[in-house]
Design a protein that fits this description.
alpha/beta; six-stranded mixed β-sheet; two-stranded antiparallel sheet; globular
């Protein structure tokens, strides 16, 4: 995968398989190819080589409506839909399942109410989206994606702008979506602890290439993280919870 006029490929020899019920985390510094990989899978950026298969089918054979019925993508940033209430924006996620008239059915209303509750948006349902904070708008985008009832959920920095409570709730929700709804999830994240906690597999990228792939324990070692981020990152296990945590060390004398 190469962008026009780029000095190097955005992605090179990258392979990833995610099954239903799994969460895969994409890790790496800025410019490593995480967002590009998500866009290629979502079909918003064409791959110059290789193939994307969605549950056994080539993504190139799926029309936009069929693709939208199985794949939901929340990019890192997106344009705010002005003038619409939160409930209206979330309901837009049902469009791939509706007819040409886009008439809301009882089934659609049930789904919308469910995802409003799952994303803690019930109290904001009548607010205009442009009046919300960045974190609240992020939750609206997540709810709209869930309203699609996707089989594959792609999230680019899903916790951006979220406060501590909503960040924790988001990752709990992702684990629930994968385990209970059997959705395959791929998330690009910068938070090492979140990746170690929710992901069943990790793809560690640097300059468009894979430098580590496997379970969090296999990939997220101090040596591999140093190679990816050019930083000293110690990793250990919290005794009380058994969760892995990471500490970045700043070398003395360096600015």
């Amino acid at each position: 995968m190469r962008y026009p006029r780029a000095s190097r490929p955005a992605l090179e020899r990258v392979s990833l398989r995610v099954d239903a019920g799994q969460v895969a985390a994409l890790l790496g510094p800025n410019g490593s190819g995480k967002s590009t990989l998500l866009r290629v899978v979502a079909g918003t950026v064409p791959a110059s080589a290789g193939e994307v298969r969605i549950f056994g089918e080539s993504a190139q054979t799926l029309d936009r409506q069929r693709l939208a019925r199985v794949v939901a993508f929340v990019p890192q940033t997106e344009t705010v839909v002005l003038g619409f209430r939160v409930r209206d924006v979330v309901a837009m996620g049902r469009a791939p399942h509706q007819g040409g008239w886009m008439r809301e059915r009882d089934e659609d209303r049930v789904v919308v109410e469910e995802v409003l509750a799952r994303c803690d948006l019930v109290g904001l349902r009548e607010r205009r989206v442009e009046e919300l904070s960045g974190g609240e708008q992020r939750r609206v985008a997540m709810a709209r994606a869930l309203a699609q009832r996707p089989r594959l959920l792609l999230l680019d920095e899903p916790a951006a702008f979220l406060d501590v409570r909503h960040r924790m709730e988001l990752y709990d929700l992702l684990e629930e979506i994968a385990a209970k709804d059997l959705v395959a999830c791929v998330i690009a994240v910068h938070e090492l602890e979140a990746a170690a906690q929710v992901a069943s597999q990790v793809l560690l990228l640097r300059e468009g290439r894979v430098i580590g792939a496997g379970t969090p324990a296999e990939v997220m070692t101090s040596e591999r993280l140093r190679e990816a981020f050019d930083a000293e990152i110690d990793t250990s296990v919290h005794a009380a919870t058994g969760q892995r945590y990471f500490v970045t060390r700043r070398e003395r004398g360096r600015s």
